[in-house]
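Protocol step 4 of 5: obtain the predicted structure for the target chain.
Materials: sequence only (see below). No template structures provided, no constraints applied. The aim of this step is simply to have a reference model before the mutagenesis design in step 5. Sequence pasted as it appears in the construct record:
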Amino acid sequence: MKQQTVSKKVTWSGIGLHSGKKCEVSVLPAEDNFGIKFRRLDTGSDGWIPADVKYVSSTQRSTSLRSGMNEVMTVEHLLGALYGLGIDNAQVEVDGPEIPILDGSGRDFVRDLTDAGLSIQDADRKCFVLDEVVRYKDDSGAEYLAVPCDELEIDVLIDFGNKTVGRPHASMRKREEICNGYAASRTFVYSEDVIRLAEAGLIKGGHIDNAVVIRSSDTSDSDLEMALAKLGKKDIAGLVKRINQGFELHSDNELAGHKLYDLVGDLALIGATIKASIWAKKPGHTGNVAFARKLKEIYTRQLRLKGKPAYDPDAEPLYDTSSIMSFLPHRYPFLLVDKIIELSDTHVVGVKNLTFNELLFQGHFPNNPVFPGVLQMEALAQTGGILALNTVDNPSDWDTYFLKMENVKFKKKVVPGDTLILKMELLS
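Step 4 output (structure tokens):
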């Protein structure tokens, strides 16, 4: 499946839920493999903030991203829409500190991006196919479980004790369900949390027009009035009356549906289309992001090991040491390939077994034997020499030369007892 971007610029404006500031945000087309990146237009910086879990700066009642001095708050609703629509690449420009909350859901994002249309790109979509079971639980009681699956499936169960409103379960089995149903689920807050959040300097832009406020018996009218006054609201008596009258939910499981939508937005920070079945109980942004970090570690490991050859020490090699010496002029102590296990016109895989009997370990280093990085590269070069010489007649009449190295990094020591799997690919 190919990557997609939005066909044209789409813009929204509104109040930030926590900052209380009016902000305008635009989603613009982006090139293949650009990913989703945010840029603050009001700070004078050209720097991008990637939609990546490693840039999360806060998860207090929303998810915020920061790079350097630039921060964008409450990104999850827009990210949920982008993920649900299958938009892989987009530039997101915002002229303030926060993505507008709009009506408290992702409905407008989905509608307007759909109206703008999508463009199919040339690059293949990045996919994260989970291949193991992953569990996570935090101190708040949030629990997560992910197991391998052919598509992204999610089940969410919320639990607020006897205060739970509506059906506490939401589930999705197809990506389209994110946009067709759950994107319209609004953010919600219990009345006692309004007081706590106001005291914490949050929800400055919160209003009953952009959030479902659920009245609980733990809150008195006077306490609620004080919180609304602290938030600078007008017609406080009228607001309290409307809160006391209650809200009509868009669906019988709107609250659970919003938690599912938030989870999708936070999981989008992995940076790939996810193929896994995920179960979440009492999810919140802090738990979502911690769980996304665990999944991102697995995805990163998969990318690092992508194309790693399978090595069976008992299998018959294509070339053993004697055969290799008919290709290469190197001899003891500088023949650094023991066998070739794969060979085609465009790639080769060799093996080097390290023992303490290597001559160099006498001096590198006494009592601390380490195989030098430059010799690891030499082993790779000799393996590549087999690939090059396999394309000519009479390979013993030719020599190969190692010309240069670029962007080489060594991440682990190589010591006696290790086996190097040496893979070379022909790029041009």
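Step 4 remarks: The chain has a mean pLDDT of 92. The first strand starts at residue 2 and ends at 6.
Proceed to step 5.
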